[in-house]
Amino acid sequence: MTAEATDVQVLKLRRADLRRCAELEQELFPGDDPWSQRAFISELDQGHHYIGAYLAERLIGYAGLAINGRPPHVEAEVHTIAVEPAHQGRGVGELLLRGLLTRADEKGAAVFLEVRTDNEPATGLYRKYGFEVVGLRKRYYQPSGADAHTMRRPAQEQS
């Protein structure tokens, strides 16, 4: 079963799903030091904002955001966005990104992220939501040595 974005619920990531996150990491990022279940546990224990995309109670994607600093100097950093391959290209990643941006906007934070320079679908999505390339990190992803763009989205005005 493949998901359309309208069938997916975005909820706070459940600790019970962290093993599934690590499995997806292995599948999605085999050449770039995928995160372990322990890494996800550490992220939650540090209080970072993690959400999951659920289709009929099954985790099909996840995303994480760190908030740093205090007003008026608040920044957010997207740590990860990942979607199971069978569900990519159907709006699930966009739902996750919007969930992270909502949290950043609540805090009045500019948002930063790194994305592989060859990941055109992700780069296009980020541009759609106001991100601009502000830097290049050579050999950022290891062990593959792939380069990354650093992208930034300015803090959004709260109305």
UniProtKB/TrEMBL annotation:
Gene3D superfamilies: 3.40.630.30. Pfam families: Acetyltransf_1. SUPFAM superfamilies: Acyl-CoA N-acyltransferases (Nat) (SSF55729). GO terms for cellular component: ribosome. The keyword Endoplasmic reticulum does not apply. Belongs to the acetyltransferase family. RimI subfamily. This is Ribosomal protein S18-alanine N-acetyltransferase.
